[in-house]
Here is the input.
Amino acid sequence: MAAERLNAIVSQLTPSKSGLSAITQKNPDDVVITLAIRTPLTKAGRGGFKDTQLDYLVYSLLKKVIEKSNIDPQMVEDICLGNVNHPKAAYIIRAAALAAGFPNTTAASSVNRFCSSGLKATEDIANQISLGNIDCGVAIGAEMMSAPGGDRNPEPFHEEILKCQDAADCMQPMGQTSENVGRDFEISRESQDRFAAESYQRAERAQKAGWFDDEIVPITTTVKDPKSGEEKQVTLTKDEGPRWGTTYESLSKIRPAFSQYGDRSTGGNSSQVTDGAAAVLLMKRSTALKMNQPILAKYVGATVVGLAPRIMGIAPSLAIPKLLGKYNLTLADIDIIELNEAFASMAVYCVNTLGIDTSKLNVRGGAVALGHPLGATGVRQICTGLSECKRQKKKILLTSMCVGTGQGMAGLFVNEVL
Here is the structure.
């Protein structure tokens, strides 16, 4: 350990040859991920989790965290839940953690930055570890979009607030913002449908090949028959979103979903409404080594940006360069990119604007094919991206997403399972 500490000090005093060499160095104080798991993603309102409550899903996944990691729960000092829609998320994460087997000395909280809530939860735990406030924590993202309600603000803002156009635009439905992007930046319906078809085809290929198997943990729950009311117990193991056999031709026949705003975004080229959860276990590298925990990856950092709410979808085109610039990197240094496909309109814009190599992008498909459980997506991307890095024996993972009300986030990770 003394030798590692000396090497860390020397490396900090010695200028790095490149940004890549700097982020791939291994130091005792690094924040690392030792477990990355998720539930299957199911169709909201009609899928396997349609009768499951958020508290039970969070509880079930936290039990899996303890089981799969074989960690002493007393070592976990804090748990942060990313969730968008549930008004009692802070109560839920605390109670679910206690019931799952964490002691009452393990703290808990919830965060909500809309679609980036899972990444925000990860950043929150990682920052606490980096600052020395805690040594070990869990970040979890979860969303039950089957539940009534939603993430829209049901009431207008105060009249003084509405005098600001950007503030008023925060009320725009997400579908409207997608049509704004398509119209303002001339993202054609055809280009969106072709992008969506590729997402479906990649997800189908990954699912058939079993690529998701090491990131998904089975969840047992109860499903009620909508006609008879009969309840039965089921164990869910696979994502329900991928529609095998989807083509550009089949997608091009789907009518617009937001016709009052435009005619380019459809139910086929927009993210699916989905239930699901994902979790990562984080700690200092030195702690992981002491506890004999397998190190999957190093958390490097994350950043956030803001932009005009009416075109919130293009935010990754701002967040990604900002994050890469902080670490003296370029897109050429990135091996795998997980870009949340909230809508094909924003994904096509970001690909074209940033010049993203699509062979690196959403290799297993994205939210168009897999679904977008709002609070879970930020952690789900980490699970999927690290699993794909491991499969390809690649190192650098970048995740990013747009965020409602005109924001964006991006995260950077180094895979260490080569």
